[in-house]
Amino acid sequence: MIRGLTTALALFATNAQAADFYFCWKGANDYTMTGQMTIEPSALNKPVVTEADVTRFKIAGYQEGTLLGKWDMATRDATDSWTLFFNPARNAFMTPGEIGLGVSQAWNANGNADDCGNPGFGFNLGNFAQDFCLNGVWIEESGMPPETPFLVSPIPVDPLCRVYAPVS
Known about the structure:
It is built from two helices and 13 strands; from the N terminus they run H-E-E-E-E-E-E-E-E-H-E-E-E-E-E. It has helices at about 1-15, 95-100, and strands spanning about 20-25, 30-40, 50, 55-65, 65-70, 80-85, 85, 90-95, 105, 120-125, 130-135, 135-145, 150-155.
């Protein structure tokens, strides 16, 4: 159902406007992350969308539902780690193994997940793990294997990775 809605949204967006995607990641030890990105309509037909195709991007990290921190591309510094590889046909963020790089997602967190600033928050999907950076420190206990998929939806999600159902 969600995949069909996402495909319909993407098809509509190619003819009219940019497409919004919402996502949620479930880490170990009750760590979660929610986010939102907007992709240029012309990029939706590309095999791989990168950070250059994204016009809006923001994430928020949680543990046991308590907000730990936020990051967004609108307020990022030029030195912030910012790498993104997304496959719009599969509605999936790509892993390092799929693209042959050491890090495929660096959202204010490099491959060591230790450069998110203090205070700061970031997410890293590297060849060792998917994990958080919080206040300049790698949060090892948040880690998941690099190939772990996470939810991508055309509908907003909450910190527990539940999709908000539209109300009519």
